[in-house]
Design a protein that fits this description.
By secondary structure, this protein is mainly beta. The protein has three helices and 28 strands.
Length: 471
Amino acid sequence: MMINRRDFLFKMGISTSGLALGFSGFQRQAQASATQVDLAAMRSYGFGQLIPTTTQNTGETFLALPKGFKYNVLGKVGSKMSDGNKTPPSHDGMACFQVGNELRLIRNHEVSNGKTPKPGVAIGPNPYDETAAGGTTTLVINPKTREVIKDFVSLSGTLINCAGGKTPWGSWISCEETTLGQAIRTNKAGKKTGGYPKPHGYCFEVFASANAAVEPVPLKAMGRFKHEAAAVDKNTGIIYLTEDAETAGFYRFLPKRNQYLAEGGTLQMLKLKNKNAFDARSGLKAGQRFTASWVTIDNPDPVAANIDEGAVYKQGLLKGTATFARLEGAYSDDYGRIYFTSTNGGDNQGGQIWRYESNGKDEGILTLIFESPSRELLDMPDNICFKPNSDLLFICEDSDYLGVSGTSENYMRILSPNGKMADFAKNIANGFQTSEFAGSTFSDDGKTLFVNLQAVGATFAIWGDWDAFKM
């Protein structure tokens, strides 16, 4: 059988492995994975046993939480918002901002339209494309009552807004997880998609201070691919981007001028030093680390993306960049280290958690800090966030993929600094138990965790004794 260039490049990269991780918690985790110890040894007590819990404001039951934790349900699908529009479905990525005395949530809606244009479906004013029903809504929250003061459409006419990222300058980067556009695609079954008036596959910026739908500006220099999440290094202004594809790249965007994203910049893709076209999807162990560099994507907005979702990724691959499996959540800690998840990476496709740490302008260290040894411990990680002033990494699961040995249950998990995993919340919503958690984000003071259940179409504000965590 003929081997194409892409297969050849993968085969060249698979033969080498990384170096051992050198810090205690995750090294112990790596050793535990290597010896396949009892899963009980890899679990933290966390906040304790999960108990079915009703909401404080409506009396409904959606979640099982640790004893002493409470929650409100907010912004449910179909409810009328303050601007007169109905709350769209498919709640996904989200961020919390402090604006004056208010908390503001900017929330994505991963609406696909059936991947075909539908005139008049835009969720609010100023649509980028009036035939696309995705976008963002903003919820203004009273921080004391944790109830909605007002809510409104803040970005309209975009498509499949999956995740994104919070910026240090008070905005949310909302990302489209598709490259559908004017071209019409026909799959093997004869189904046609595309045919939109506008090209899709871009990032859009929404400021938390906005009180109405913003003017949508596609940030084309940030690339046209199946965007998932974004994470900003507050020390440099560099934006790191994930791609949700079976063969995915990890990207960074260097803006021409810090904070002014619409002015353009340079898109780059991660490459492992001395490991041409390395395949990081399997065959690795938690704790491995690699020296990484970056290559520039010459055409971040290729016309070919209309038909080929991998048009940007393939440019990087020809330069020897690394390949990951379905990169989703991303988060930057206070030191500018970037954590990101591979939802179905790893030998059992249960997920990987990676960390990139810059050690100079053009190089850094990439570390596989966790790989799921069992779907019972972690099953397909998606959005992630750190609790402020802590080392607790909160992880949303997207695990309703039974065809690839997934579980039918979805949890929020916590990766503790000793490399062990704890359960924090379980989806027990009647009829929607397989719905993924999405959009985890804390208030700046760390007192309230906000998160979505996507298929339920609901946002939750969760609070309790955050100091009670036990390793």
